[in-house]
Amino acid sequence: MPAKISPNQPAYRLLGKNYETPDLVAKVTGKAKYAEDYRAEGMLFARLLLSPMPHARVRSIDASAALAMPGVKAILTVDDLPAPADAMTDLGQVIPANKLAERGLTNEPVYQGDPILAVCAVDEYTCAEAIEKIRIDYERLPHVVDPLVTLRPGSPNARVEGNVWLRPVAAPPKPGQPPPPPSAPQVQELKWTDADFAASKDGQLPMGKATDKWEYGDWEAGLKNADLVLDETFVSPNTSHQCLETRTAMAYWQNGKVYLHCSTQSTSQTVPAVARWLHMDASDVIVISEYTGGGFGSKITSSIQCIIPAVLSKKVGAPVMMRISREEEHFIGKARPSIHGRMKVGFTKDGRITAVDMFVLCESGPYDPQGDANQAGRQLSLMYQPPAMRWQGISVLTNTPPRVSQSQPGGFQGIVLMEPILSKAARKLGIDHVAIHRINAPEGKASLGPAAGGKRPYVTSAFIKEALDIGKASFHWDERKARAKRSGTKARGIGVATSCFVGGSVGFDGLFVIKPDGKVYVQSGIGNLGTESVSDCHRVTAEVLGIPWEKVEVTWGHTGRNLPWTCPSGGSQTIHAMTRAAFVAAHDAKDKLQQIAAKDLGGRAEDYEVGGERVYRKGGGGSMSLAQAAKRAIELGGIYDGHEIPKGVNKFTAASAQNLTGQGLLAIARDTMPRDGLTHSYVAGFAEVEVDLETGRYDILDYLAVADVGTVIHPRALGGQILGRSMLGIGHAVGQKWVYDQHYGLPLAKRFHHNKPPTIMEAPTKMAWEAVGLPDPETPIGARGIGEPPVGAGCMAILNALSDALGDDVFRRAPVLADTILASLEAGRPMEEGLTAHI
Amino acid sequence: MAIIRDIMPAFELFQPANINDAVSLLDRHGSDAWVLAGGLDSFDWLKDRIKRPKVVVDLSQIAELRGVREVNGGLEIGAMTTLTEVVRHPVVKEKFSILSHGAESAASPQIRNQGTLGGNVSQDARCWYYRGGWKCYRAGGNICFADTPTAINREHAILNAERCVAVNPSDSAPALIALEAQMVIRNVKGERVVNAEDYFVGPAIDITRMTVLQPGDLLTAIRIPATWAGAQFYFEKVRDRQVWDFPLMNVASAMVVNGGNIERIRIAVNAAAATPLRLTAVEDAVRGKARNAATGEMGGKVAVTGAEPLRYNGYKIPLMRNLVKRAISGVEEAKWA
Amino acid sequence: MGLVEFATSPWGQTVPIHIAFYLIWVAAIGGLAFLIVHAIYVQFFAKKEEFAPSAYPAQAAANVPAKVHRHTLASRLFHWVMSVAMFALLITAFLPRVGFPFDWVTYHWIAGLVLTASIVFHIIHASFWLDFWAIWPDSIDIEDAKRRWSRATGKSAPPPRKFAKYPMENKVYHLAILLSGLSVTLTGLFMMKRVRTPLFTRNPYIFGDMTWGLMYVLHGLAGVGLIGLIMAHVYFALRPEKFAITKSMVFGSVDREHYLEHHDPERWAPTSK
Question: B146 and chain A: CB distance < 8 Å anywhere?
């Protein structure tokens, strides 16, 4: 895995260097305990009974034979579960609950696999036998699994209430007030007309009424004055998250508190989520999740089904574990929504985009509206900087498993819709593919999305042009371009794609204690989801305090162990948000150390410096070790050892800090540092593919990802993220999908072997990454998140390379497999059904 | 009865130590018995509770079913020999490399370590409707869900479909057919030997079985005669994923070329029909002809005569044509330098 | 062991899919048992058939032609085409189910189409060219059937009258064949949408799972019913006392002796053509 950080990056003592993470040995030796590995005395098991129908109403449940079986303890239905509750923001604003949202169990299943009930018994075999004895009388309701089908006149709706999501527009914010929280989404019926469908040629997405719309600039004039206008339809796939660890959970109750072992991306943030689902006070919820086997956006705060063992445990008075099988994971594990997109894009002769008219249809599943359609437009507007743009979107319900964010949610689909057009335009205009990306790339505080409050928002920074330049040189783009494209039965092609996404948030807390043993005990509320940010962020603590990493102990994965309020590990926020939190906490410690030194050794606090595990007087003189300072902090009490908790930190952090009082020097702070702009990260991907024209199969010969992620904190983890998430994107290009039988509305591909996540054999023969290394100017350490943007770049660099090898119009949806290539080459025109869902 | 998957129901397990005990158990339990070889096919069925045998006869303890023996210049391969053992066997590699390639293209290294040659040729269809527990013809019902106006059938048959459009997924089968292998079958009445191409049964004859094996029958060994030892071989498998995937199609040929002409040839494809197909019409058409691209093209065209595509599997026609062409005249390699 | 086999539909519903195939054996064994019992009864227990005296004047009997025309050539051709198709259908349907597997489907639906065509022809032919009502039991037939039953069971009843063109058994048999034949052909025609034929696109979704299931059950019940019916038919055709009728299906006419012995010229006017 060749890797390179550009010399742009400033030199640090620890940052930008590899180290042994505290979870490494447990992971490679198998000692790491995931939710399923825990056992509790008297533990019972639960299994789910799933709906066999895509849409139905449960008329009655006869569980008498099951309950009469020895070893069967209880049955749980939705009637035992709390109703969807409103959420509360940090500002105290109420986010009203979506009344149609998933509750974990249901009496109106809206997709095959929707859990109806759970059976609790002494073991899983008994659960299974019991489930087979349960008789449920269903009233079958109309179903639809194709978002375009449900928009046709007279077609069925996925829910009784309708087939599309609407979010009533909130009143504009009053001057000086924060924007109001979003209103609860609603479902209603919307059908397009036959004329809408008739107006589109074969393969083109019909453009009926959209439910959402925004625009900026004069996009009509932009298209009118363009030298080239392309009108293209592309369809992105629905893809399961395919976490290796299914969302198993185990729960028990002690003294009115629920202890929940679950699989989650975020540790601290899962507490309020579970509390809301269970209608409990957050202080009575303990979440344990030391290791998580993948989330990719599907476990940001675990999943609602994790409350099933909790409620069952209360009902039967014993610990309950509910393991989730691979097939169940296919259903409740959720997926990325597919997007059907139709784009009209204008270009000048030299390749600059003049305007974009974007129409997107998002297949949102049955439960939530999803933000992917909107985010697709926003990220596209950032990545390609169209001077004018109209975005229209519609979020359609289908009777397929629920959707949720997946790595680069929406941003991915925006890139997938736009890249084929950029690629085609480059071919039509005779412009180099890297050049056309560069000419349209953002720079500095580039704008994105529509105006809010009269001004378009903008990003903190963008160095994607630098990434393209680095990649072009490292990939030997021009030499590759000069080579022959066909030989024997093979065709080769090269492709480049750019991609971007949100890369950081602000406002979270840092918390640690310097104890009299001289060590720094960091409390990490970050989830351990495989990104290593759980410890990477705290490298900043050691860097700022000038202590060796070996003196840092990280506590994570158990909210009973006094963790601070932390960002959700989703949307690539963590490395940005939590290096800032670590930075402010480290400075809080530094201030306190200086103050203690000044108290004991004389002088003013600012005369002192912290470094080399000591606090010492600048220019020589007295000093004290951190161990001594920690001891003094306890003696001093007050703010120094946590007897006084500063105002401003989250109450979650404050509660944790109180439990740490008196153990040493307590560092605690909330990130209130300014930031001008929205933090985003970027990746440029370069690929070369070779296609066998007689079989349609292709190999990815080489792949390079160049990331603009600001300062690199931990190269090995960053590389893992860049290449791992590139593979996630490559999976979308080469194979991952859902398959549905439309007549019955049932899935055919439910297991790894049919959903086809990529294997090591699908990985590019050569694969490398580089980082631009230019720090983000709006955050002190300069680091931005990386989890999202490699996905779109990975997917589309491959597909652009494929178009380069095969020409336009071989495929018009992802993934692209041998059948599509072979059939289209044979026929000389696109042979794949463009718009049918789930084929 | 509500449906639950991914957890095996109870059954009675027998682990006989020799073939005689195994066949007498199979005879005693008849159609109630399930033969368990490597388990890769069986455990899918059992864990999903779709096939629910009362009795499982596990062959893993029968030493005489394992191993590769040299017999008269050919080989006798025990049915329980793992695919990995077949792939790595020096004589297979040296004289019958087509089998080594076929077996090596199956599934993944882990699966080949556990999966057996007998299991690979006897495995059930992988049609996703059938494997999903849909009660289709093959499952004893009265419908093919994969051949309807809305069915998704990109992996299904283009030839010899009869109500059921599932394909045989074995990667070793076409190699064995090309090598003129014979299948040794035992039951309590004794032993019988059938040619590899006659081992497989299409839906026209028996829609619920893939092979001639009836309840009570046990495939004990596969014999490969010396006939094709050291011939020119070609094997290729096209699949969606390059590991752990069944074939979209595969092809195997064994050929003896004399003076540039094809003197003898056997060629077989799989995943085109419910049985592996020996392409005798192609063999007849190219026998005696010069081994060149024109002959290959011609053979390819003969191969797809009568092919009938479903809605999503039309690509299999050019795929089969091209694979058969390659199996006759080879691949035109790229020269990038 | 039910009469019908059920399956779980893709939606988890229990639906019938076809008859239980042991019914093939039930029909075959039942048919065989009937023949044996009937043969024994006729041989050892049955009284000689006795008819009420006919009102037909004796001298008129002399005018009865030597060969009394019974079946037109078209009728006979229809009968034999139908019987060939019927045998083909039974063989292709049931032999693979009882351990003789072969590629049966194409033969089965082709034979089914032949049967359907012959039935359609027969319905039109019988309605417009033949005496349509001749094959339907009339009040005399029913009255005579009661008399025969009483006499066979030892009660006193006047002897039954001679038959019209078709004996009562013939008429009842025709009715049974009509019901089972129409059931099997109508359901069979729909079932052709489920297999690949050159005639139309395969589409098993023109009906729901339950409708199809019931259709398969009806097809199966009618099919196994036909096993018994046809066994009985062949048996009677071969019985010596009925052989004249069998011959008439080949040659078109019955002998005057047979005619005068069994038929009432008042009810069936004799013609030579």
Answer: no
CATH, residue C169 = 1.20.950
pLDDT at A90: 63
The two tokens of residue A392 are 């229209």
Q: Spell out which residues of chain B touch residue A823, defining contact as CB-CB under 8 Å.
A: 314-315, 318
Q: Indicate whether C255 belongs to any domain.
A: no
Q: Chain C contacts of B148, Cβ < 8 Å?
A: 202-205
d(CA C82, CA C87): 9
Say what angle helices A789-806 and A411-429 make with each other, to 10 degrees.
Answer: 30
CATH number at residue B54: 3.30.43.10
Whether residue A815 has a cis bond before it, omega within 30° of 0:
yes
Fold for the domain defined by A144-170+181-240+342-406: Aldehyde Oxidoreductase; domain 4 (3.30.365)
Question: pTM of the prediction?
Answer: 0.95
Phi first, then psi: give them for residue B119, nearest 5 degrees: -65, -40
List CB contacts (< 8 A) between A744 and chain C.
10-11
Pick from B127, B158, B315 the residue to mutate for testing the A interface (most A CBs within 10 Å): B315
Q: Cβ–Cβ of B149/C201 closer than 8 Å?
A: yes
Tens digits of per-residue pLDDT, B104-155? Answer: 999 999 999 999 999 999 999 999 999 999 999 999 999 999 999 999 999 9
Amino acid at A623: S
pLDDT beneath 70: ranges in chain A: 1-3, 89-91, 169-179
Suggest the residue from B1, B129, B142 to mutate for an interface test with chain C (most C CBs closer than 10 A).
B142
> Which residue does chain A place closest to B309, by CA atoms?
A823
Residues of chain A contacting residue B129, judged by C-beta atoms under 8 Å apart? 741, 748
Is C14 within 8 Å of chain A by CB? no
Closest-CA residue to C256 (of C244, C238, C243) = C244
Mind telling me how many Å the CA of B134 is from chain C's nearest CA?
Answer: 5
Q: Distances from the Cα of B57 to the Cαs of A242, A667, B28, B121, B251, in angstroms?
A: 34, 65, 11, 18, 33
Total CB pairs under 8 A between chain A and B = 139
Mean of the per-residue pLDDT values of chain A: 95
Gap from A63 CA to chain B (nearest CA, Å): 11
- Reported CATH class of domain A35-142+242-332: alpha beta
Mutation choice for C interface testing from A49, A50, A51, A53 by most C CBs within 10 A: A53
A507-670 placed in CATH 2.130.10.10: no
Say yes or no: A361 contacts chain C, CB-CB below 8 A.
no
Q: Name the residue facing C12 among A52, A741, A743 (closest C-beta).
A: A52
- DSSP of C20-72: -THHHHHHHHHHHHHHHHHHHIIIIIPPPP--PPPSS-HHHHTTS-SEEE---
What distance in Å separates the CA atoms of residue B28 and residue B22, rounded to the nearest whole number? 10
- Residue/partner pairs of C54-58 with CB below 8 Å, 24 or more apart: C54/C161, C54/C162, C54/C264, C54/C265, C54/C266, C55/C266, C56/C264, C56/C265, C56/C266
Distance separating alpha carbons of residues B134 and C10, to the nearest angstrom: 5
The segment(s) of chain A belonging to CATH 3.30.365.10 are 144-170+181-240+342-406, 507-670
Contacts with C10 from chain B: Cβ below 8 Å:
134-135, 145
Q: B248–A128: do the CB atoms touch at under 8 Å? A: no
Q: Is residue B327 part of a domain?
A: no
C-beta neighbour count of B44 within 10 angstroms: 17
Give tens-digit pLDDT for C92-105.
999 998 989 999 99
Distance CA A409, CA A412 (A): 6
Are A753 and B148 an interchain contact pair (Cβ–Cβ within 8 Å)? no
Report the helix count and the strand count for chain C, using DSSP H and E: 9, 4
